[in-house]
Specification:
two-stranded parallel sheet; mainly alpha
Length: 66
């Protein structure tokens, strides 16, 4: 008997949304240097590392386009 693997749509992925948010933060820092009073690269990388570890632990389904 074959096991059918559950896949979810990419827009349902918390990991992809968090990565998109971090990319936006990086983009804002690149083009709005005055925002560095609130955000800095080290803070973004550190938070991103912890959030990705947590999301990796709670992820159950793979992403699929079918």
């Amino acid at each position: 008997m074959d096991v059918v693997e559950q896949k979810k749509h990419p827009l349902a992925s918390k990991t992809l949304w968090v990565n998109l948010l971090m990319a936006v933060f990086g983009f804002v820092l690149a083009f709005k240097p005055e925002m560095s009073a609130y955000l800095n690269e080290g803070m973004i990388v550190t938070v991103m590392g912890f959030v990705n570890m947590i999301l990796r632990m709670v992820t159950q389904n793979k992403i699929g386009l079918n």
